[in-house]
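Before relying on records like the one below, remember that each one covers exactly one chain. Contacts with other chains, cofactors or solvent are not represented anywhere in the record.
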Amino acid sequence: MKLVRRAGIKASAIVTAFLVTLSGCYAGHTAVGPGGIASGDRREVVIGVGAEPTNLDFTTTAGAAIPQLLLNNVYETLVKVDQNGGIIPLLAESWTLSDDRTVYDFYLRQGVTFSNGQPFTAADVVASFKRTQTDWLNAISHSMDIIVSTEAISDYQVRVTLAQPSNEWLFRLGTAPGAIFPADITWDLRTEAIGTGPYRIIDVSPGNSITLAGREEYWGVKPGMDMVTIQYLLDTTAAVNALRAGDIDMLFNLTSGDQARALEDVAGVQVVAGTSTGDILWSFNNQREPFTDIRVRQALAHAVDRAAIMETVAAGYGTLVGAMVTPQDPYFEDLSEYYPYDPALARQLLTEAGQQNLSLSLDVPNLFYATQAAELIVSYLAQVGVTATINVLEFPAVWLDQVFTNHNFDTSIIMHSEPRDLLTVFGSPDYYVGYDNPLVMELATAADAMSEPEWIAEMQHVVQLITADCPGVVLYLAPTLIVADVNLTGLRPNGVTESMDLTELHWQ
């Protein structure tokens, strides 16, 4: 974690920027609230974040906004990924692994309850894992396909048998597919979320806000807030103005780097910078001509200056990586120079492909980073003879329907923020980018069962294979930057999973 400035502000962004207004509650930037309430006595917080969840059900609905809000805060997992990427106990107090690395025995915490009062037992784990394999529609569920069986040995012991050893699986268990739900679900997951976490949802106002309440009966350290309110606002200028006016206490991922720089000297606020799993991907429809021609895809990669795009859109925040692998992943290697900015080579490849007068569309969500990057890409493409038209789509509803579900697009720009999502995006031709290379999953599946050094080396080979095929261009890896009242502590900036982790948030 990097503290950028404690007496000022600095922020920049990833994909979203929710804004929240909580009626009747203090959200200013001084140490004393209305009526003389000191910061340490405050039990409410207003947080701004960005892309609104379509609903509350990440088992059937794609998109990072849902688990970002619910994971760790409402739903919990057997294990948790800590801020350094390590695996620590959560609902499981401990676990053992068989000598052949295929059988896990998890020993569960006792005295844990769901927010509806139901006790947590092994039956909930068994049902949750089985539903992930059979009922989930979200592509991220495939990380649980490796499970052969999940058994309740007792009320507080669960045995999970894998089809083969896996270097990835325990990490995946700390992400959304590992979330534990009650065994018997009689409610609509799209509108109600019942978990074991420190918070429960008490209000959903579509298009406006979601409010969480702290659970006094929570099994672990009691939440530092009685109420957390989150409101959705795509307009980054409005978000910044709300922060300046004291209408919110924290911005989670401001999406304008320029505005972040402008806030550096504002008194009474802090900016904390951390790592991210958010790859800003310029994706191609690999099953639509002319993107079926690798020369066209490679030409587009050479046509744009990714460093300049990152500098303009995110004011230099972020990291050039070259592939959908982050520096915190075990098999990361810097491929940022794989497709250097080379307009002459781009024109040559387009000529070879017979696409000197290529026209294409950028069908992008109405998110700041996407629209700003699209405008720059249009200008770069014009320099190599490509005419590009920007179509701005409402996010999430229209973008998810047109681009993600129906694959009706030429190219798009979106931040993929799920951890280790390389194979989710490029492992199946049915995914929206339509990349079809069976060798990718064949090699990755075999590598997962190898020893850790062999797994790392083979996965680097897989990453290089995908990068060479150029099914999309990773413009840059976004950072996690949090702008907050200087008296707000317990910020967890490192984006190691999808979660906006509020579990340690409190006023000092």
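The chain has a mean pLDDT of 89.
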